[in-house]
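Handoff note, outgoing to incoming analyst
You'll be picking up this chain. Sequence as last confirmed:
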Amino acid sequence: MNVLKPNQRTTVYTLLERGSTQREIARITGIDRKTVRSYQRRWQAEQSNSPRVATGSDAVAAQTPPPWPPAPSSASNPAATSLCEPHRAFIEAQLRLRRNATAIYQDLVDSHGFAGQYNSVKRFVARLRHKEPEQFDRLSFLPGEEMQVDYGEGAPTRVPGSDRYRKPRLFVATLRYSRASFRCVVWKSSQQVWAELHERAFRHFGGCPQYVVLDNLKEGVIKPDLYEPELNPVFAATLAHYGVVADPARVRDPNRKGTVENAIGHTQATALKGRRFESIETQNEFLAHWERNWAAKRIHGTERRQVQAMFEEERPHLKALPLLGMQYFEEVQRTVCDDSCVRVDHSSYAARPAAIGSKVRVRIFAQRIQLFDLQTGTLLRSHPKAQRPGTVVLPQDERVFNPSRETRLILRQAAQIGEHAARLCQLLFAIEGRVGQRKLWGIVGLARRYPAHCIETACAQALEQGIYSYKRVQALSESLFADALEAIEAHAGGDVAPTPATLTQQHGLIRDAHEYGDLFAHAAASAMTTATAATTPTATTLTSTQGGRA
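Most recent structure output, in case you need it:
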């Protein structure tokens, strides 16, 4: 009890003798009601033990009339009956229908001739309403089963580069079984900061719990839902990396994570109340010191055990930490452009098999880029991150025709036809350059209509004649193929074999029959179209005939 000065004590006694209530005395004198109550008890004890005659100031106080209106007394002035009492049954029925006092007052006036005021109905309704106290269960969890996390407000801290103080965000993670906590303050929060704080909490405890209970803040939960809440992708990936399952509390249900709520209140009221810090680092160092020397050594009020002792019991039940930490990323959506690439930080990355115009989900790591299907979440591609803006990460085999880089492809296909075809194409490109690539494509394309040996022979004759032209090679190939067909038809009809004067058996350009057979077999096995496949038996017969004549 506070000790009052003599003049204050006299004032309180005087007001008590006049019949003033404790509330009135506290309002008049500015003295706390608890102090007034204590002096009222002392005054009543003095009055009952030593009755005296009113003299002096007491007599004057006794002759002074009490203030108007007189103070209410529950003993002398019983409460008047409410005007709503005759309508109690009607009001109780309306309250069971969950109607409010305004609606009940309007019905009383319209249908029952009520002459009182709305405040009378409001007071009567307040007395009738009986709110059952809410029952809470004593939640209990196994060691290492659950960790609860939440944000609060830290102590005022000087903003870097200014003289202004601001309260940072206070992150608290509390193990439900042992009540051991990790506390840290940050200036601002984000998806990555929220995930990093969880990772720091896991490493502070030396292990991971099975579940983490959090609020429905945007850093952790994108779309709250009672049955299937949608987690933030960075936060979900972090928990998956550590093997922890998120269990978001229901919306507007903070009692589900009451342990961390109490831990935040305990931190703010005990550790940070009335303190100021010059930097975030200083406040975090103080919180670590306070947790280690005071909070961990306290005896918990409910469990009646030391927090540190319970944590030592819980520590072996936490899951082991992975060797590598979480690799954080930024997740965005991108549209596949007409070059089958997506643009990320001014660089292009191949997105096949995603279709052109479709959207993909892109995860941007520090050293790599990952592309996922937007609907199924399947990993499509993974590329090393470009070090320079403007880089195009697209394999050569996925690029469409480009005159500046397709020459090697054409010459390689010409070499598959034969030595003379490759030499002719090289001469054409050396003479005409990039424009000559059209002729090269034409010569290579003849392999889809004629056997390779016919094209090779035509290229050899064109080289011998010194005519480097696609049309010349095409004409020679057609002539050779037509002659071969005529010879096949003549042999099939039983005609007499041509005389040696019309058929040259020995020439520098004519190869051995077995070599021609190998060329036909190679062409049939590698790149033969439907037309070539149709002519293959005939060509084979021609080879056999020539071999027999040889």
